[in-house]
Design goal:
CATH architecture of the largest domain: Alpha-Beta Barrel
CATH topology of the largest domain: D-amino Acid Aminotransferase, Chain A, domain 2
Distance between the termini: 24 Å
Number of strands: 17
Shape: globular
Bound molecules: pyridoxal-5'-phosphate
Radius of gyration: 20 Å
Number of domains: 2
CATH superfamily of the largest domain: D-amino Acid Aminotransferase, subunit A, domain 2
Largest sheet: 9 strands, mixed
Length: 313
């Protein structure tokens, strides 16, 4: 992780070391924050952000789901802020982390007394599951931690407090010697991983759990679109744990992890135990797309505009 020079904090770019919050910040005590994870890729036409509008719309939706009606910044302002932060740090490619956090108003449990604030950080971040995983596939275990019930912790919002569930599952998986945790929903069906959506391939058809029980991943949507463009059938339906064990291929998608195969689940080899042909084809087209060389690049890339620089406070 390469540290950035400046971080956007409520309309101003501030030096990295000064982007701090107070110990009594409500967000820290109750997880009252929402975030996004977005990637900017290096293209021949300069840095471009992958599906920025969709990510910022989900960011705003997450606030709404949490219960914040007066969203502090509109989508256009947030978009300009993301562009300005990338420009100011001069990254060709980077990971982008907008965070809305409840900044002030005491430690009562009523959102309506709290004041929201927004920060945007960028940093250089390679593939989340590692370059080797990207080529050979990763090893995963089905977690003993259950994924959120949609009526307990919302599954459509990237609310910071929700991620305690992901952190516990991922940490357990890594301590047990695996790379990632696959999480089942409260009914016992396959939901998603700690930070990725999951797919399986059987007889050249691609299956993934329905949107109702998972985070509506933007990479998930991109991969479904690319798969259909390439002529594959994609079916959204409930998947059981043993369907994963007997699949030809299993793969995961996410902004941080991109598109990665799973070669082993719970000590059972998936397919041939390597990244399969469908996963390879989708991964290849995805990587072409994000660098501006795919059929969908024009639709999905938001090139970082040269614009007025925001004053560093
Ligand atoms: C729980 C969970 N599922 C799926 C995803 C993948 O979503 P996206 O492709 O929009 O990054 C993420 C990452 O944001 C996640 O945290």
């Amino acid at each position: 992780m390469t540290k950035s020079e400046v971080i956007w904090m409520n309309g101003k770019l501030v030096p990295y070391a000064e982007a701090t919050v107070h110990f009594l910040t409500p967000a820290m005590h109750y997880g009252l924050a929402v975030f996004e994870g977005i990637r900017c890729y290096d293209t021949t036409k300069g840095p471009a952000v992958f599906r920025l509008r969709e990510h910022l719309q989900r960011f705003i939706n997450s606030m709404k789901i949490l219960g914040i009606e007066a969203v502090p910044y509109d989508l256009g302002t947030l978009r300009q802020a993301v562009h300005a932060t990338i420009r100011a740090n001069a990254f060709e490619s980077c990971y982008i982390r907008p965070l809305m956090y409840m900044a002030e108003g005491g430690l009562g449990l009523n959102l309506d007394n709290l004041v929201p604030a927004v920060g945007i950080a960028v940093w250089d971040w390679g593939n989340f599951l590692g370059d080797e995983g990207l080529k050979k596939g990763i090893r995963a275990m089905v977690s003993s931690f259950t994924r959120h019930h949609p009526n307990i912790s919302m599954t459509k919002a990237k609310i910071s407090g929700n991620y305690v569930n992901s952190v516990m599952a991922k940490t357990l998986a890594i301590r047990a010697g695996f790379d990632e945790a696959i999480m089942l929903d409260p009914e016992g069906f396959v939901a998603e991983c700690s930070g990725e959506n999951i797919f399986l391939v059987r007889d050249n058809t691609i299956y993934t759990p329905p949107r109702a029980i998972v985070l509506e991943g933007i990479t998930r949507d991109a991969i479904i679109t690319i798969a259909r463009d390439l002529g594959y059938r994609v079916i959204e339906e409930l998947i059981s744990r043993d369907q994963l064990y007997s699949a030809d291929e299993v793969f995961v998608t996410g902004t941080a992890a991109e598109c990665v195969g799973i070669r082993e689940i719970d000590y059972r080899t998936v397919g041939e135990g390597a990244m399969g042909p469908v996963t390879s084809a989708l991964q290849a087209e995805f990587f072409q797309t994000v660098i501006g060389k795919g059929e969908r690049s024009a639709e999905w890339l938001d090139y970082v505009q040269s614009g007025e620089s925001v004053q560093v406070a």
